Structures are given as C-alpha cells and as structure tokens.
Amino acid sequence: MVSRQNLLGYTLQQMEDLLAQFGERPYRGKQLFKWLYNNRQYDFRSMSDFTKDLRSSLEAAYEFRPPTLQLKSESKDGTVKFLFRLDDQLPVETVLIPDEDRQTLCVSSQSGCALKCRFCATGTMGLKRNLTVGEIVGQLIHVRDNYGNEAYSNVVFMGMGEPFNNYNHLADALRIMSDSLGLGIAAKKITVSTSGITPIIRKYADSGLKAGRCRCMPQRRRSEKRSCRWPAPTTWTT
Prior knowledge:
Elements: E1 5-6, H1 12-20, H2 26-38, H3 52-61, E2 62-63, E3 68-74, E4 80-85, E5 91-98, E6 103-106, E7 110-112, E8 127-130, H4 133-147, E9 154-157, H5 167-178, E10 190-194, H6 198-205, E11 213-216, H7 223-229
Parallel strand pairs: 1-2, 6-9, 9-10, 10-11
Antiparallel strand pairs: 3-4, 4-5, 5-6, 7-8
C-alpha cells in the first residue's frame, strides 16, 4: 500500500500551492484549509464543493492524521494529561487544565528539551528533536476532536521544550491556530512561554504574527540563582 502524505501542519499558503499543482486556483486551497482545520472534515470524498476528480486525487495521495494517543490520565481536580507517540515513537505530552473561568491547553513544541532547567522533568530527557508544525497543531486537533469545540478556551506553549528553539515551526503553527479559516483561536487566548531566548523574542515581536503573547519565565532577584535554574540567560542577556 502506498503511503499517503499527511496534510496536518500545512499552512494556508502551502495548501494553495498544493492545489495549484492540480491546476486549481488559490481559492481552492482556502477551501481545503477550511475543510480540514475549521470544519473538521477529514474525508476528502465528502468535500462537496470539489470536483469528483479532485476529491479522488486528494484521497489517493493525502491524509489528515493527528499524532497517536498512547495514554490519557485524569487527576481529581479535572486536569487531563495526554501522552502521544509520534511516528518515530518519541513521546510528547499535552495537558488540559481546568480553571474557574477557562480551560487551558498546555502544548509542547519539542520532544525533550536542551535547556535542562532544574525544576523541569523534561530537561532530564535532553532534546530528542523539534516537533513538526503538524505535531504541534495535532495536539490541539486531537483534544478538539475528542472533547468538542469548547474543549479549551486558552492555549499556552508551556509543555515539553523551549518554543523559541523551534521558532519556524512554532510560527507556522500559530498562523494555523489564529487564522479564521483555521482553528480560529483569538490572539489574546494564546501565550508563548519562553526561558528567555532574546534574539528570537525580538524576531517574534517584529514578525507581524497575529497571535500569541510572549511571556518569559519569572525573574529572580539574584541573577546567579536564576541562571542556575534557567540556563538560557548564561547565553543571552535578557
């Protein structure tokens, strides 16, 4: 059986480019983007505004498949932890955190982490690799598909990994998340938490992305104490 390419993680521009290869106009790419991310329709054969030939071509070559869930656990306070296994069997964790007025989804940007912050268990793993755009967005897709459109009200990048050490994939994930044709999450509902990668913070601020507040880890009064627990400032001046 021929392996199909996973479209999860394709940006709007990439889907427009893809449909252009089939001789279609850009608006077809917008339609495909909306079907997959917004309408939650993953069966190409059910995309009623496409021609039969286009639907057949997409079905033969492509799929839309989130990461595989290995384990789910729920604590007494309602917090739900998800452990995903990627195609190469690396682990990724996502956490759904309830609060009085919100449901926050804590997502990962890497499998493991290179920073080795002493308070963080992920740091003991070391960095395995960056997550792809699809593996980042797939965490949100899985929770939404299994818990409904109101599963989470807020998203924070405070799971496994340092988001700004995977900046390009993070940026594309944010574009998909915040696009009204995509996941449609309001910018004020998305927070990117960083240990303080200063050059990337500046790049992020100048990027024009319509999503994501940037929040650095809390400062300590004694810089040497902070540097001991948060390794990034030994490299970058915050």
